[in-house]
Amino acid sequence: MARGIRRTAGPLDERTQAILRAVIEEYVATATPVGSHALVERYGLTVSSATVRGILHDLETLGMLAQPHTSAGRIPTDAGYRYYVESITESVPLPQVEQLMIRHQFGQVEFASEHWFRLAATTPASITRSAGLATPAKPRAARVRRIDLVGIGEHLASVILVLREGTIKQTLLTLPDPLDPEVLDTAAQRLNTHLANATGADIEARLDRFVGDDPVDELARRAAERLQAMMQEFDQAKIEELFSDGLLNVMEAPEFAQSEKLRLVFSALENRAYLGDLLSSVASAGRIQLFIGRENTPPEMRECSLVLAPYGRPGRAVGVVGVLGPTRMWYPHAIRTVRFVSGLMNELVDHLYA
Q1: How confident is the model at residue 10 (pLDDT cuts 50, 70, 90)?
Q2: pLDDT-derived band of residue 47, with 50, 70 and 90 as boundaries?
Q3: Sign of CA dihedral 165, 166, 167, 169
């Protein structure tokens, strides 16, 4: 069970579950406390308002609902949302039309590229009206897919490294002699020939392949040294990059009418130590994970929920996709969307390692 959530001693009866579901769905839709009269009217409950009030009081005693003000209706607590997700909602797939739409979107961008990771954040954001999050699949030891050398000045070149899982890294290299496009192209060809599928350790062991007096060998060796350093730094980082989209969706929620609140949330997500621990937790679980309200460690995240799913191959390359929004989130749709996108990303990694 997730941390920080108080649960009941046993299951709720069907009528109590139906009322808890109605409160949550009404509150998600309206963002206003829910009263007994509104529930009876809008949800066709076959009991009186007095009976509903009694059940609402019981749910409040159990810690699943709260009453912000004495005269107001009830709102769900983190424990209420948790019970709803685990015991009431049904596990159904994303509608076929949405599956086809998402597959079509992924089919429009370059396979296994940075565009895939951006789309893995953008797609859940647009479908769930939340903020979408995605991290590239992070291998234990990155491998080279392609190396490019691009001249950007008379004495300056860009070393561009494309890793096997699609991440792109680059650095600048100062040239001792004026740029010669032919030397640059030949050096890049030599690097790709000798370093295809190489790890950082492999590059270090193969540096002697670029020993020579001609300009091509000199350039290739200097570029290889930079590549080795980049890959070493990449491998040491718990998490390299976080792609996000849909910030405006979250800003539209009344809970985040104050922009400072949302800024603090995204500042927390920029904390690489926290994000790395979160990634490890989700990856080790091997399934979709929810972090509701106070289940989130940073105080800034206590009004948010995260729905995250791992993708990739454990032990080889693992990333995370998901959504972030207020605790007043439409969880069933968020879960279905995140699960489907993580499945697509699994196909990507399976293809890369086939």
Answers
A1: low
A2: confident
A3: positive
| Alpha carbon distance, N-terminus to C-terminus of the chain | 35
Q: Which of 6-15, 193-202, 215-224 is predicted least confidently?
A: 6-15
Residue in the structure block whose two tokens are 């979408």: 132
- Pull the structure tokens for residue 169: 């890294």
pTM above 0.70, yes or no: yes
Q: Can you give the three-state secondary structure of the chain, one letter per residue?
A: CCCCCCCCCCCCCHHHHHHHHHHHHHHHHHCCCECHHHHHHHHCCCCCHHHHHHHHHHHHHCCCEECCCCCCCEEECHHHHHHHHHHHCCCCCCCHHHHHHHHHHHHCCCCCCHHHHHHHHHHHHHHHCCEEEECCCEECCCCEEEEEEEEEECCEEEEEEEECCCCEEEEEEECCCCCCHHHHHHHHHHHHHHHCCCCHHHHHHCHHHHCCCCHHHHHHHHHHHHHHHHHHHHHHCCCCCCEEECHHHHHCCHHHCCHHHHHHHHHHHCCHHHHHHHHHHHHHHCCCEEEEHHHCCCHHHCCEEEEEEEEEECCCEEEEEEEEEECCCCHHHHHHHHHHHHHHHHHHHHHHHC
